What we know:
Blueprint lengths: L4 H5 L3 H6 L1 H4 L4 E3 L17 E12 L2 E14 L4 E12 L5 E13 L5 E11 L4 E11 L4 E5 L4 E5 L4 E5 L1 E4 L4 E3 L2 E6 L10
Antiparallel strand pairs: 1-2, 2-3, 3-4, 4-5, 5-6, 6-7, 7-8, 7-9, 8-11, 9-10, 10-13, 11-12
Amino acid sequence: xxxxxxxxxxxxxxxxxxxxxxxxxxxxxxxxxxxxxxxxxxxxxxxxxxxxxxxxxxxxxxxxxxxxxxxxxxxxxxxxxxxxxxxxxxxxxxxxxxxxxxxxxxxxxxxxxxxxxxxxxxxxxxxxxxxxxxxxxxxxxxxxxxxxxxxxxxxxxxxxxxxxxxxxxxxxxxxxxxxxxxxxxxxxxxxxxxxxx
Length: 197
């Protein structure tokens, strides 16, 4: 049984970025490659270049996801899209911000919806009441998993004062959990004990 549209839209942030190139046709586009014919373009030249790109996903008359990028390069024949200086916001059912973030560069595989996220990567999650910052993450869409790799330090800060930093970061989006594989440092604030009524 297929998921209702609202549920399908809310399954994750990065999968929505993968379809950005297909939906942004109304943005400011640059298709002028000069005198060269399309089959004479250099190996790194995108088929479509969008500047000042903006996209909003709407479900049941409400904006559920918004992304903006200074530049989007669509390499359709090679099967990927690159977003530069990207910012995104995902909204909860009540209209509040669920997740928001930014990255210098996001490269999305349009077939698998996997993504490489690089540069100044920062995102906050209202559900986890935490912010995450790093220089590189990889998104595996099939497993709904974020990974930082053994050489990328990730810093996690929570509202209760916990601050952890380490390598080998992995986050399971389906379960809402994260872990570090090595070199963990920082401070942990244990949750306050529950008071019996």
